[in-house]
Amino acid sequence: MTRPITTIVTLMLMALATWAQDTIAVSQQRHITPVRPSTNVVKQPGRDVSPELIEQYISGDTLAALKKAREDSIRRNYPRYPRLTSLWVGVNFIDPVLMAMGQDHAGVDLHATLNMWNRLQPTLELGLGWGKAKPDDLNFTYRAKVAPYVRVGANYNFLFKSSPDYQAYVGLRLGASTFKYDVDAHYYNSYWQEEQRFTLKGERSHALWGEVVAGLKVKIYGRWSLGWSVRWHHLFKYKSTEHSRPWYIPGYGPRGRALGFTLSAYYTLPLSQAKWPQKAEKLKE
Amino acid sequence: MKASDSTGLMSLCSYVLIFCSLWLTGCGDGSCNDNASAVPLARFYYSQGTTQVTVSDLTVSAIGAPGDTVLVDDDDVTDLHLPLRVGATSVQWCLSFAVNDTTSVTDTVTIAYRPKEYFVSVECGAMYHFDITGVTHTDKVIDSVVVAQPQVTNVDQVNLRIYLPNN
Known about the structure:
The complex is a heterodimer of chains A (285) and B (167). Chain A is α+β, with helices and mostly antiparallel strands. Chain A has helices spanning 2-28, 51-58, 62-77, 94-100, 278-284; strands spanning 86-92, 105-115, 120-133, 140-157, 167-189, 194-221, 224-238, 248-249, 253-254, 259-270. An 8-stranded antiparallel β-barrel of chain A has the order 1-2-3-4-5-6-7-10. In chain A, strands 8-9 form a two-stranded antiparallel ribbon. The longest helix of chain A is centred in the first third of the chain and has 27 residues, at 2-28. Chain A is elongated, with a radius of gyration of 39 Å. The N and C termini of chain A lie far apart (101 Å). The longest helix of chain B is centred in the first third of the chain and has 23 residues, at 3-25. With 167 residues, chain B is mainly β. Chain B has one domain. In chain B, the strands form 2 sheets. A 6-stranded antiparallel β-sheet of chain B has the order 3-2-5-6-7-9, with no helix packed on it. In chain B, strands 4-1-10-8 form a 4-stranded mixed β-sheet, with no helix packed on it. Chain B is 14% helix and 47% strand. Chain B has 1 helix and 10 strands. Chain B has one helix at 3-25; strands spanning 41-46, 55-62, 70-77, 79-81, 90-98, 104-121, 125-137, 144-147, 151-152, 158-164. At the A-B interface, helix 4, strand 5 and strand 6 of A face helix 1, strand 6 and strand 7 of B.
């Protein structure tokens, strides 16, 4: 009689122990958010990923494919243009326009710019300048003969990631000119009532100056662009003669003026176009 | 060319024209900041020290001036502009100092110089500059005359210092 009771008690104790063990184990378990089936999908490759790359990934060469995909992504976001991206030639025609509106001097220059990496742009500007001043209320006529000038420098294009068709840049220039001018003057002294005319003929001078340039260039049609720039310039030196100081310096403008402005038309020759980033090709199309 | 392109080009042209107009109209007032002619400036001082003097009832005229024109007529003077002839290399100026209401004492100052044609700027024009080569004077009243700046330009600066006795 005692044995069955003992057996029952033993079984009950074992059942209790098992229950207690399960309960404690459950209470010590971490709560884990179950994975929802909707998020458990295969991630599709991006639109720009090439089929070859997807093929490479599927074939098992996942690391190399991922590396290549990352490099492609960087190239798309940070496009690198070839060293010789393009070359453009332009003509600055603002002065003839202003001369037609009444300005008393003009300069026309041709410039050639090499676009390197769509970022750095060494440039050469060659031009001719001339002028004639005859103020109504003053006593002279100043004739600046046609004279050459040269400016060399470089631009830095801030839109180097974008298509070379559009540029926003700053740059530096070094300019120089040698030139001649004549002055015819009429002098009158009211106290002595004396009148004199004199001519300063063939006054010869030269000048050296620097410029800080900020400009824009935009595509108008095909390979044709328009660009304009504002230039702050500073005369490093110029030659005064015994009888005069020059008024107009070809390529610089009137000696006392610190700002210049250009308006240019450009024709662009693309170079190494096959190496241009794809995005730019798309924009071009 | 698309419509948006032509609109952009139009607005670009508008900006350029506006800028051109501002450029032509807005560049300085075209005025000369210095004098429009080069005239030597003489200033009076006491012999001892650097104190400026205002001379009362001074009369100034040049020998040989057309119609005996008087430059200063019985006026109180501190600074004196003495115009030079470009057709000559010296000018004599008579300075008459009033002693009392009826009497005056005259000194003559002779300025020798070299005139030089000079184009200054578009704003100031062309004129003659002068290099003063020497000054002589009589000494009835004037103690001495010193050439402070021999180059006479259109910049305002004292070229001659005329020293007078303290009394």
